[in-house]
Amino acid sequence: QLEERMDNKRISEIIEEEMIKQDANRYRDMRKILTIPKSIADELDEEIEEAYSNDYIRSYSDVGAYMEAITDGLDEDSELYKFMFPDNDALLGCSHRNIIYLYLVDNDLVKVVEG
Question: Residue 6 — pLDDT band, cuts 50, 70, 90?
């Protein structure tokens, strides 16, 4: 009976280790999906800096205020605008804007990649 309890304990440890690995893999995979090109992140950071300096937003402003200040000042020819509102692909644009929201909430949530 002691041997059976030891086996059960070891089995539960193995299961727990596997679950931890799966969680780590899921997080890693999620980070692959949640990426933003460096050029977009740079332009976004510039827009935020400009909005701060013009008092359109403050450090305690919510993400909606950030997004409004950013989109109000965007030139339709800018790379950021085209990223947020791609031609003929509303679903992709929505996805990109959601990634930008996450970047604005905490830029550690989104991986900045070259390209």
Answer: low
- Residue 81 to residues 18, 72, 86, Cα–Cα distance (Å): 42, 10, 8
pLDDT score, position 32: 61
- Any bridge partners for residue 36, and if so which? 112
Provide CB contacts within 8 A for 109, sequence distance 6+. 34, 102, 103
Rounded to whole angstroms, how far apart are CA atoms 38 and 103? 12
Pick 52 or 39 by higher pLDDT: 39
- 79 residue type, one letter: E
Half-sphere exposure of 81 (CA within 13 A, CB side): 9
Q: How do residues 57-112 score in pLDDT, each as one tens digit?
A: 887 788 888 888 888 878 889 999 999 999 989 999 999 999 999 998 888 888 89
Q: Is 74 exposed, middle or buried (0-12, 13-18, 19+ CB in 10 A)?
A: middle
